[in-house]
Design a protein that fits this description.
The chain has 14 helices and 3 strands. By secondary structure, the protein is mainly α. It has a 3-stranded antiparallel β-sheet with strand order 1-2-3. Helix 6 crosses helix 10. It is globular.
């Protein structure tokens, strides 16, 4: 009688027999290991342990590692540390249609079940092409780290790595200057008759300033504070303001706090009854809830504010006639990350040095201890101040 295949369980509750736990995986490293992992589950946990302070990244990385581990064991009948290049090609096709659905897909579609619920499943349905690419990119990062740690002998995905072909050499998810002007115009026209409306308007204007002028991610707005604004003198003795941001992956970067950004900061702080300039180490969140609370807003709450503004601005645009329908539709698709892409695109359009755009957005690590880079920072601040403006 054939043994029934168990239902998928989350990695933290998964118990595997010796033949499937990776003790004897055919791709196990033979040299000195940098981690104490004995099984594949241990190795994955060691990889994920670096990300516990960045919840969104941790959840996404755990999800993809968990899916692959479960597929390897339950579908292929082999440990993850025995997967080959060919296996991973099969897995990518599996992501497009996880079958059998009863085993892999949650009943009820996107209605999430708790991880300790027997009805929990690792998928909610087939993955789109972009989600498949993201999944394989995350797994490539995992395999590369496990090789570096000495746990695996090789990365079965490294043979698949090819530079993506770009059909269009430009970022698609951004607002054109004309559409960005529509958003600013809508924000300026938001109602301000009651104290709550005035406070909400001030918050929206400051939030959009941070996302656009600073190029901040929505998570960075929620996790950093006003006390991270500071000033220092440049080579000519001129005082310049900066915002030290703890960003994605725990990386720090310096964002030029332009004269325009500092003016908007002062306006927002005075609207909240605070001094115009923050004090060093001040714990006030970058964006505050309505009312007296000084607690930071969640990522979801910030995202909701931005989406509501885009949606309302789109409605205002659509009300002007059918000629504006396509632009309104595009605006309704926009999210907070579009503002970050818009910032980068508009800076490049203004001929700001692309190396400075890269550093402003945190696409590369920033070193502040070198005098040479210190001078380069000052030039970056000056050029950003001159060429990247919000112009409310």
């Amino acid at each position: 009688m054939k043994t029934a295949v168990p239902a998928p369980r989350p990695i933290d509750a998964l118990e595997l027999p010796a033949g499937l736990d990776g003790h004897h995986g055919t791709n196990r490293g033979t040299g000195h290991m940098q981690v104490a992992a004995v099984t594949d589950s241990d190795a994955i946990r060691a990889w994920l342990a670096r990300l516990v302070d960045t919840k969104t990244t941790f959840d996404n990385y755990r999800k993809e590692a968990e899916r692959l581990l479960l597929w390897s064991v339950l579908q292929m009948g082999k440990p993850l540390s025995s997967l080959t290049h060919e296996d991973l090609l099969v897995y990518q096709h599996f992501l497009a249609d996880p079958q059998p659905a009863a085993r892999w897909t949650a009943d009820g579609g996107r209605n999430k079940q708790p991880r300790d619920d027997p009805r929990w499943r690792p998928f909610y349905g087939p993955l789109s092409a972009s989600s498949q690419r993201q999944a394989m990119a995350i797994l490539n990062v995992m395999f590369a780290w496990l090789v570096q740690a000495g746990y695996l002998a090789g990365n079965p995905l490294s043979l698949s790595r090819q530079r993506a072909r770009r059909a269009r050499p430009r970022i698609v998810r951004y607002l054109s200057p004309e559409l960005w002007l529509e958003v600013k115009t809508y924000i300026q026209g938001m109602p301000r008759e009651t104290s709550r409306e005035r406070e909400h308007h001030a918050r929206v204007r400051w939030l959009f300033t941070l996302l656009y002028l600073g190029g901040l991610r929505i998570t960075e707005v929620g996790s950093n504070t006003m006390g991270q604004f500071f000033r220092r003198g440049d080579e000519n003795g001129k005082e310049r303001w900066w915002l030290e941001v703890m960003g994605k992956g725990g990386k720090e970067r310096l964002v030029p706090a332009t004269a325009e950004m500092m003016m908007e900061l002062g306006t927002y702080r005075r609207a909240r009854g605070l001094p115009a300039l923050p004090s060093p180490g001040e714990e006030t969140p970058l964006v505050l809830p309505i009312g007296q609370s000084l607690r930071p807003l969640t990522r979801a709450a910030l995202h909701r504010i931005v989406k509501e503004v885009f949606s309302d601005a789109a409605g205002s645009l659509r009300a002007r006639g059918d000629d504006h329908a396509l632009r309104a539709d595009r605006l309704e698709q926009a999210s907070a990350h579009w503002l970050r892409h818009s910032a980068g695109s508009h800076m490049a359009d203004q001929q700001l040095d692309l190396r400075l755009v890269r550093d402003n957005l945190g696409h590369a690590s920033l070193t502040t201890t070198s005098q040479y880079l210190h001078v380069d920072d000052d030039r970056r601040h000056r050029d950003t101040d001159e060429k990247h403006r919000i112009d409310w």
